[in-house]
Write a structure and sequence with these properties.
549 residues, mainly alpha, 3 domains, three-stranded mixed sheet, 27 helices, 64% helix, 3% strand
C-alpha cells in the first residue's frame, strides 16, 4: 500500500504544482517574455550583500529526554527524498514572490540560530540520530518580507520566517521558541503523516493545501482563493489535523529550546503575548494565531513544563538586536515611510539602555546607506561600533563577534567605489566564516568590480553545481560571464536561473540566444544544444501533466 502511495506522491511531485492557481497577493507571476527581453539589464543587477556571525558558543548541557522519531519514513507515505523534492517545487514558486527576502544578512542570521537548534535536536536524539529519517534532509530557513508575526514549515526542511516575527520578538529566546516549534513540524514529518492518514485524495490537493496555508499566514482571504472545488474541504481537514500537530511541535520545540541553552520562559511568554494580541485586535487576528491556533491547553502545557525548572538569565545575542533594526528596514517597502522609520530609530538611539542605542544607531546607518547618504551612514556606523564595546551578551547561546557592523562597513566602502579596500577587509574576516552567504556575495561583488572575472566564475561554477536550485548564484554567474564578454555562456547561465524559477519560456528563449551568440566553441555549442533540448522536454512534460490534471 505504501509503495502505491509513493508512486502517486512521485507523480504529484513531478507536476501538480504547475497547475495550481496562485493568488496575486501570494506569488508573483513571471512574465516570461518580458523577462527574456530584459535579461541584459537583470545580469547587471546584484543581490544585496550582508554578513554572518560566528558559530554558537559552548552550549549548556541538559539531561536528554528522547522523543520518538515519529518522522521515520516507514510510518509515512512520503519518503524524505520525496518530501525534499516537493519542498523544492514549492520553494521554486515562493522564491519568485517579490516578498521572498534576498537579504543575505537576514538569511545568515536565521540559519545560524536555526542550525544551533537543529544541532541540539540531533544531540538530543530528536529523530534521525543515525542520519536516516527526518535528518536525512538539509534544513534551510528563509525570510519573508511581511509585517505579520508568523513562521511556517514546508516539506523537506524549508522554514519561512516573517520579518514581523523578528521585529516583534522581545527576546531571542522567543524567536528561538518559534523556530524550534517549526523544526518540530519537520522532524515529526507532519505533512507525510497527513498523507498516510488521509489518503490519495488529500495527496492530489497537497500543493494547494500547503500554498493556501502560506497565503493564509499573510491574507486570510487568499486561502479561499486557492481552495477551489473539493480542495476547500481538504484544507479544512488539514487545519483540524494540525491542532494535534501543533501540540506535538510545541513539545519538540520546548525540548530543543531547553537543551539549546535558551530561556524556556520564552515559549509561554510568546504564546501569552499572542493570546493578548488576539483578544484586543479589532480587525483580524495575528498571523501566528491564525495559522497556529493557540488553544488553552497548549498554553497551559507550556506553562506546566516551565514551572519548577530553574530559569537562569539568558541574554539575547547582540546580533539579535541588529537584525531587529535590519528587519524593520526590509519590511518598509515604500520610501515615503522612511521619515517615520528614521524617527523610530532616533527614538531608540535616545534610550537609556546601550543595547537599544546600538539598535537605533545601526538602523540609522542602514537607512542612510539605503538613501545613499554615505557620510551619515559612516557616522552612525561609527557610533554603533563604539556602543558595541559597551554592551554584552554574556551567556547567549549564539554568542559571537558580530559581523553585521563589518559587513555594513564593507557596503559603505563599495558605495564609495573602494572595492579593493573592501576585499582586503573581507579577507580578514572570511576565513572563519567560509559558508556565509553574505560574505560570499560581497566577495563576488568586489571581484566583479575589480575585474577579477575568472576567480568569480570558478567559485560560482562550483556553487551552482552544489546549489543548482538557488537562482541567486546563476544570476551572479550570468553577470560574471557578461562582464567578461562571454555572451553564449551568459545566456546559458540565465537559462538555468529561469529553470530554477520555473520560468520555462524565458529559459528556452535564453538558450536560443545562447545559440545565436556566436562566441561558443564546439564543445560549448554541443552542451548548449543538449541542454536546450532537455529544457524543452521538461517544459513539454509540464504541459502534458497540466492537461492530465
Amino acid at each position: 500500500m505504501n509503495r502505491k502511495k509513493n508512486k502517486v506522491a512521485q507523480k504529484l511531485i513531478a507536476g501538480s504544482l504547475a497547475f495550481i492557481f496562485y493568488p496575486s497577493c501570494l506569488l508573483a507571476q513571471v512574465d516570461n517574455n518580458r523577462l527574456a527581453q530584459e535579461n541584459i539589464d537583470r545580469t547587471m543587477q546584484s543581490p544585496r550583500a550582508g554578513s554572518e556571525f560566528a558559530p554558537p558558543s559552548k552550549r549548556i548541557q541538559q539531561p536528554q529526554l528522547v522523543l520518538p522519531d515519529l518522522g521515520d519514513s516507514s510510518s509515512a507515505a512520503l519518503s524524505p527524498i520525496d518530501e525534499r523534492l516537493l519542498g523544492e517545487r514549492i520553494m521554486r514558486d515562493i522564491r519568485r514572490d517579490p516578498d521572498y527576502s534576498k537579504d543575505a544578512v537576514f538569511h545568515d542570521y536565521l540559519n545560524t540560530v536555526g542550525q544551533h537548534l537543529i544541532d541540539t535536536a540531533r544531540k538530543q536524539g530528536v529523530a534521525g540520530l543515525d542520519g536516516r529519517g527526518s535528518f536525512a534532509i538539509n534544513f534551510e530557513l528563509f525570510g519573508v518580507r511581511d509585517k505579520s508575526i508568523n513562521a511556517f514549515a514546508l516539506p523537506g526542511g524549508f522554514i519561512g520566517v516573517h520579518t514581523g516575527l523578528i521585529v516583534s520578538a522581545e527576546t531571542e529566546s522567543e524567536l528561538a521558541s518559534v523556530l524550534g516549534h517549526e523544526i518540530g513540524h519537520v522532524t515529526q514529518k507532519h505533512i507525510a503523516r497527513m498523507f498516510s492518514q488521509q489518503g490519495t485524495n488529500s495527496m492530489i490537493a497537497l500543493a494547494s493545501i500547503i500554498l493556501a496555508a502560506v497565503a493564509a499566514s499573510r491574507n486570510p482571504n487568499a486561502a479561499q482563493g486557492l481552495a477551489v472545488g473539493g480542495q476547500a474541504l481538504a484544507i479544512q481537514n488539514q487545519l483540524a489535523y494540525s491542532r494535534d500537530a501543533e501540540r506535538e511541535a510545541d513539545r519538540v520545540g520546548f525540548q530543543i529550546l531547553q537543551a539549546g541553552g535558551f530561556d524556556v520562559q520564552g515559549m509561554p511568554d510568546f504564546f501569552q503575548r499572542m493570546q493578548r494580541a488576539n483578544s484586543i485586535m479589532e480587525s483580524g487576528v495575528p498571523g501566528y494565531v491564525r495559522t497556529h491556533p493557540l488553544t488553552t491547553d497548549r498554553i497551559a502545557d507550556m506553562q506546566d513544563r516551565v514551572r519548577g525548572l530553574s530559569k537562569p538569565k539568558v541574554n539575547s545575542s547582540i546580533e539579535f538586536y541588529l537584525l531587529k533594526a535590519r528587519a524593520r528596514l526590509i519590511q518598509t517597502t515604500s520610501s515615503s515611510n522612511y521619515p517615520e522609520l528614521k524617527q523610530f530609530y532616533e527614538s531608540l538611539a535616545r534610550k537609556a539602555e546601550p543595547i537599544k542605542q546600538l539598535e537605533g544607531n545601526y538602523g540609522l546607518a542602514l537607512l542612510s546607506l539605503k538613501q545613499q547618504k554615505i557620510t551619515d551612514a559612516e557616522s552612525y556606523l561609527q557610533k554603533s561600533k563604539v556602543l558595541m564595546q559597551t554592551v554584552s551578551a554574556q551567556g547567549s547561546p549564539v554568542q559571537r563577534s558580530s559581523l553585521s557592523l563589518e559587513s555594513t562597513a564593507i557596503d559603505i566602502l563599495f558605495a564609495k567605489g573602494q572595492h579593493a579596500e573592501g576585499l582586503k577587509q573581507i579577507a580578514q574576516i572570511k576565513a572563519t566564516h567560509p559558508q556565509s552567504r553574505s560574505l560570499n556575495i560581497l566577495t563576488l561583488e568586489g571581484q566583479l568590480k575589480t575585474k577579477q572575472y575568472e576567480q568569480a566564475i570558478i567559485w560560482l561554477k562550483n556553487q551552482t553545481k552544489a546549489q543548482p536550485e538557488n537562482s541567486i548564484w546563476w544570476d551572479l554567474l550570468a553577470r560574471a560571464y557578461a562582464q567578461s564578454g562571454k555572451r553564449a555562456l551568459q545566456h546559458g547561465a540565465l537559462a538555468e536561473k529561469y529553470v530554477a524559477d520555473g520560468a520555462w519560456v524565458a529559459a528556452i528563449e535564453q538558450m536560443r540566444l545562447a545559440k545565436l551568440a556566436g562566441d561558443a566553441d564546439f564543445y560549448q555549442s554541443s552542451e548548449i544544444d543538449a541542454r536546450a533540448r532537455q529544457i524543452q522536454d521538461l517544459y513539454r512534460q509540464e504541459l502534458i501533466q497540466q492537461k492530465q490534471k
